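I'd like us to work through together how a protein chain folds, taking it slowly. To get us started, please write out a protein record for me. Go ahead whenever you are ready, and we will take it from there:
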Amino acid sequence: MVGRECAFSEGIVGLWDKFRQGLQRTRDAVVGQVGGALRIKGSVDAATRDQLEEALLLADVGPATTDKLIDEARLMMGRDPQLELRSALEQSAAGILGRDTAPFAPGSQRPWVALIVGVNGVGKTTLAGKLAARFARDGHRTLLVAGDTFRAAATRQLEIWAERARVELVRARDGSDPAAVVHDGLSAALARKMDVVLVDTAGRLHTKHNLMAELEKVGRVCSRVVPGAPHHVLLVLDATVGQNGLVQAREFQKALAVTSLAVNKLDGTARGGAVLAIADQLALPISVVGIGEGLDDWEPFDAEGFARGLFEG
């Protein structure tokens, strides 16, 4: 039992370290701006509130979520005079981020089918490969489907990831109909008794209605081949675009029932506060965060760990 508890503790510490490192630039933008004010107790005066608002807005938390975050923190401090502003903000942020949950993990369905969607350049293909590697390592028979038939580089990239992850791949000729490729992939998954199918879709601008309609078609094909599929629609956002992620997510929600969000490139931005705004304004759970380029540089989202990584000095 002691060994198991130690392993669990090490896992939590490792996750905290990853969040802390990934949020370094965002945390510097907030903590560096506010400084010692985060240690105050009892009440927040007008000058401190203005300073805190400015710091959170610079981190791209957004006006509405900034107000909600500070108001909730002040209420907590009013109830507990010994509570520091930093801790109150962490608890307030964790409450917003943990309000909705949808883990990106296989359910009871076999095969469990997940669509990975998003605009161009957010890192969908790389993330699909990393997710496949983790599922395979956990003992799930995993199939990758190369649904991005527009970019030859995407298919080749997915082939490399499939080899690294030691999972099977279904692909078609470049330029093929994506819905047809998905149909073939899911049919193969049924025949091969796969546990998990991850479908990498082509990046598409959320303003291109014809491409969004094509994505709807892919979703319909999934449900025809595997009843109830897709079981999870993972929308990948780029943390460096900040509040623009809100606009993207709203448009994708019109085409598909988005289950959860993956936020990539947190380690490369000072605008990681947008994650708070996205969770708050869209009422969509965040299930995955990308915090680096390596095979294991992603983690299941943890609201408390993220909040701590945002404010702890």
